[in-house]
Amino acid sequence: MKSERPQVRLPELLSPAGDMERLQAAIRFGADAVYLAGTEFGMRSAPSNFTPEELTQAVEYAHGRGIRVYLTCNIIPRNRDVDKLEPFLRMARDAGVDAFIVTDMGVMEMAQQVAPEVEIHISTQTGVANYAAARRLYDLGAKRVVLARELSIEEIAGIRAQTPKQLEIECFVHGAMCVSFSGRCLLSNYFTGRDGNHGDCAQPCRWKYALCEETRPGQYLPIEEDGDGTYILNAKDMNMSEHIPELLKAGVDSLKIEGRAKSAYYTAAATNAYRRALDDAQAEEPLTPWVKEELNKISHRQYSTGFYFGRPDQNMNLGSYVRDYEVAAVCETYQNGVAVLSQRNRFFRGDTADVLEPGKAPYLVKMDHIQNESGEEITSANHAMMTVLLYTDTPIAPGALLRVQTKDK
Description:
This protein is an alpha/beta fold.
């Protein structure tokens, strides 16, 4: 027996879920809703995604905790895809998803016919950038529009002012930014034959590039002063954690974190930070200081605020990854001064762990006394998934993530 659909909570924090582990992390760390994909028709084919059986399990898990589930069905389909869409939509309907995220109008109409009880959310791939388009989509049955990422806060406020209040507005607030208009790109197809508009993007915009003069083959000239080339197509990541009050004032109903292809740690840390940022904004309190620090502890490119405060300058396209922290272990239990840890990455006796728990400020724990599961003293935890006993007076909650700084190792 399927659980009842949870009611939408606005403003909503919407987190990515590339697989069951990431879905559980999003829910544990404060998401109101998650978005995910089946094994077909989503715009991210790299994540594990969800088989029909896994999708049913995911929906039941989320609904049992009052969390809504939105299914991406937002590729730009070709003729060969159309016949497979209807059974896919029926499967997702039967699994109990709360909304379909769609780009194509034909997919929208089919979804309405197959599953009229499932909400329609219009994907950012559609490129909704004005109130006329938003109103027309609402008239066609859309419950929500995910606006184009190229809009300013003023433009969003203008759309909100001229659309029905029943139409929900969703915007990206964090994560990778595509250099093409709202994600429509042909670079991947051109370079690799992998169709980005079918969810198989090879991300050539993240590659390093250099100039080569045609009469001097093999002589590569950096476009910037960097001997390895430059990331001329590589947009900085978005980070709007300090501007949630402005987004809420503009009328944004759902704050979306990008990253279905990213790790469970990324999902947990980003969700935890934005949960606090959203709660602070609703309480009209200043942003909790550790929020900004937390977002610097996940793998990211240099941050920007995208188009929200006007046209980005040329520095928008400069940025490589920053990876200063990694998850060393997950806490399984804590009792009588002993934390039982499951190793995720190598760490050493004497390291300082930065502990992430849902809804709490991060805190530090010294790992001066560690043993293997047989009670033998060890100097490092260097076997994948090994059990480590950490002796500490600091209680650590089950499920907490222990991080270490990679640059110090």
